[in-house]
Amino acid sequence: MSVVIAAQPLVLTRLETPLGDMVAVTDDAALHLFEFHDRTALASEMRRIEQRCGAVVDGTTAASEALARELSEYFAGARTTFSARIVQRGTPFTAQVWAALCEIPCGETRSYSQIADRIGRPAAVRAVARANGANQVAILVPCHRVIGADGTLVGYGGKLWRKQWLLDHERRLDRLF
Can you give the pTM of this predicted structure? Predict the structure, then answer.
């Protein structure tokens, strides 16, 4: 993933989903953050974005309107992929993990160790877990598709009940597509 300077100002849009309200931070061209409104880390994530890019104002952008349409289709069972341009800031390692997450097909899961193997760093399982947790774009960068080596649901900032819901939803979608 490349780092792109955001057009000013960034815009915060609240979106309703079947899993509760979510917060999107966009400019006209890209999505910078997409999180559940009750994620514990949301306040610190917003502070980092504001420190890096300046004030975030309420409203909508072309990018947030496109995201809302695609999310509606996803939750209705008519979409398994998203077209949003995503801008996240992280280390090269973190960006590698996020890219690997995006390669997990809808309806499937991978373990942290499988992700570590995929990026050529088999001993970096804990670092992969930290990078997974640092993802600021829920659903589109599918960190919810990562599970424990024993198949259990672990480590989801959006709450484990949502992770289970998303995995069940995507298994149903996988059968449709």
Answer: 0.91
Same domain, 22 and 58: yes
Report in angstroms the alpha-carbon separations of 71 from 65, 84, 130, 138.
10, 11, 26, 11
Structure tokens given for 141: 């960068």
**What confidence tens digit (pLDDT) does each residue in 114-168 have?**
999 999 999 999 999 999 999 999 999 999 999 999 999 998 999 999 999 999 9
- Widest CA span in the chain: 45
In this structure, the answer to whether residues 107 and 64 fall within a common structural domain is no
CATH number at residue 54: 3.30.160
Structural domains counted in the chain: 2
Q: Are 86 and 1 in contact (CB under 8 A)?
A: yes
* CATH number of the domain that residue 159 is part of: 1.10.10.10
Percent of the chain with pLDDT over 70: 95
Residues 97 and 65 in one domain: no
* Active-site residue list: 143
CA dist 77 and 173 (Å) reads 6
Nearest to 91 by CA among 120, 121, 131: 131
Residue 135 domain-assigned (yes or no): yes
Distance CA 41, CA 20 (A): 16
Buried-exposed string 52-62: b where 16+ CB fall within 10 A, e elsewhere = ebeebeeebbe
Residue 56 is part of which domain span?
A: 10-75
